[in-house]
């Protein structure tokens, strides 16, 4: 645990991770809060709620690189404050809006979502040394897993005792509070020795958005596509077994395994190529389909869970290494967009596989998606190494 103590001892790191956790937990719950509002308060269908979720997700995916580019130019405080104002307006007004207006307003709300994840990753790259970075990104991945496990569950529990509009206000308040905390901290997104590198100006995209970066972004997309597919296949398996009430427990086991895997990976002394944990994650996902009740599923998802945070950590670390300091915000924004796209596409693709075959087919498709992304990443990385290898003569 020495590496983690060193990371948390970096001035400002512990407080940044704390306020970022608040914002990210609320952001992971925003879709659930809007779904409950549309279904319970407006008394519309889940398909209508899915439209709002899709609108918000599309905004988040498109807004990632745009906000990142603004952070590169203006710094995190100014950009985060603009997004905080947008979130205040949106979440305060949600309970008073009709469905059509909520559907339309969700897109700009996603476009200007508080970039808590992106700012945290940039700050980690700027505030830590090379030897500390893997442990720091492991903590960031663990933070993401905790927010995913806690956020939606808290919203569902609150919805049982509060009205959906109050729940929406609560989620909005947490997003705003976390964003305001990040703006107050104003973490550095450039290391002390990097301003000199910025003097040459912003490099053209073709210089940094090359084969290596495309490889990492492809693996980011494949990772979240796999993870969203696993979640849907878990629900389908338990619904077929008449045990759907255990879905939250199985997902929680997977999340806790991911936390453990992330901490183990961050404390290790050897880094892994990004494609390796993703490829193994794809392999161990496929046989989960042989589990047919909640108890077997709890055991089967542990392997995939142990590899989830290490894979996400390796992706974030690779992006930080490949992106020049002057475009790190845009690069991390592209990573967030790739991951959002993977989450958005994973569920319908795996859902179609489940409808055409069985829940086991859903796990197989999710695992194959991860394997395909890992293979693409390995091939592209190999091509990059060959292209940059110095001439032996």
From TrEMBL:
GO molecular function: transmembrane transporter activity
Domain of life: Bacteria
Keywords for this protein: Membrane, Transmembrane, Transmembrane helix
Signal peptide span: none
InterPro entries cross-referenced by the UniProt entry: MFS, MFS_trans_sf
PANTHER family in the cross-refs: MAJOR FACILITATOR SUPERFAMILY (MFS) PROFILE DOMAIN-CONTAINING PROTEIN (PTHR23542:SF1), PTHR23542
Protein name: Major Facilitator Superfamily protein
Protein source organism: Virgisporangium aurantiacum
């Amino acid at each position: 645990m020495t590496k983690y103590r060193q990371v948390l001892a970096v001035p400002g790191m512990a407080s940044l991770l704390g306020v970022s956790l608040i914002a990210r937990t609320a952001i992971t719950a925003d879709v659930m809060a809007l779904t409950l509002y549309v279904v319970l308060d407006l008394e519309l269908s889940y398909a209508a709620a899915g439209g709002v979720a899709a609108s918000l997700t599309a905004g988040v995916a498109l807004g990632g690189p745009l906000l990142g580019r603004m952070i590169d130019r203006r710094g995190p405080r100014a950009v985060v404050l603009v997004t905080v104002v947008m979130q205040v307006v949106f979440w305060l007004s949600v309970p008073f809006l009709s469905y059509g207006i909520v559907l339309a307003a969700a897109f700009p709300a996603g476009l200007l979502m508080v970039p808590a994840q992106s700012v945290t990753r940039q700050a980690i790259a700027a505030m830590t040394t090379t030897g500390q970075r893997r442990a720091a990104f492991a903590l960031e991945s663990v933070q993401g897993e905790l927010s995913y496990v806690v956020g939606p569950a808290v919203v569902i529990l609150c919805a049982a005792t509060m009205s959906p509009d109050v729940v929406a206000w609560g989620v909005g308040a947490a997003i705003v509070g976390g964003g305001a905390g990040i703006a107050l901290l104003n973490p550095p997104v450039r290391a002390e020795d990097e301003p000199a590198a910025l003097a040459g100006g912003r490099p053209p995209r073709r210089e940094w958005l090359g084969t290596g970066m495309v490889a990492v972004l492809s693996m980011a997309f494949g990772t979240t596509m796999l993870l969203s597919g696993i979640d849907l296949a878990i629900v389908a398996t338990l619904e077929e077994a008449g045990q759907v009430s255990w879905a939250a427990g199985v997902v929680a086991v997977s999340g806790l395994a991911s936390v453990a895997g992330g901490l183990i990976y961050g404390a290790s002394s050897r880094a892994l190529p990004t494609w390796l944990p993703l490829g193994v994650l794809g392999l161990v996902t496929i046989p989960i389909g042989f589990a047919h009740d909640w108890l077997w599923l709890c055991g089967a998802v542990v392997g995939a869970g142990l590899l989830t945070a290490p894979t996400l950590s390796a992706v974030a670390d690779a992006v930080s290494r490949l992106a020049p300091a002057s475009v790190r915000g845009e690069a991390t924004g592209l990573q967030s967009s790739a991951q959002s796209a993977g989450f958005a596409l994973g569920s319908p693709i795996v859902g179609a596989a489940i409808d055409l075959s069985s829940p086991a087919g859903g796990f197989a498709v999710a695992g194959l998606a991860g394997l395909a992304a890992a293979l693409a990443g390995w091939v592209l990385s190999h091509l990059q190494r060959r292209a940059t290898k110095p001439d032996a003569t």
